[in-house]
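Justification of resources, computational component.

The compute hours requested in this renewal are based largely on the per-chain cost of generating structure records like the one below. Each record pairs the submitted sequence with a full structure-token output. That output is archived, and it is also reused by downstream analysis tasks.
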Amino acid sequence: MPSKNLKYSKDHEWVRVDGDIAVIGITNYAQLQLGDIVYVELPEVGVTVERDEVVCAVESVKTAADIITPISGEVVEANVDLDDGPELINDDSFAAWIMKIQISDMSEIDNLMDEAEYADFCENED
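The structure output for this chain reads:
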């Protein structure tokens, strides 16, 4: 179940800010669109990423999707549990985070949607 303190991107990533760290995963909407996830290409720890940059990918039985970072900064951790268990995203997309980024520009958080805005955005996509 999503937390009230999450922010969302138009590319269907969620962001939970913990100090200067952004924990990032894909939304339930995204995992439902993808179907059964069979592989997650994790980002490289230590790499610096810019907002709206493709940093990794998720593959399902139906398709592959790029993961686009909604936040600029340095990747400080990747969820290695997804190497052996990519289906964890299908089980609970909000618990199965993909990466943690040390935020370089906190103002980028303001560009993201809250839960209500994201719900409206998804309704308009269908």
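The CA atoms of residues 13 and 27 lie 6 Å apart. The beta strands are 6-8, 13-18, 21-26, 37-41, 48-49, 54-60, 64-68, 73-78, 99-103.
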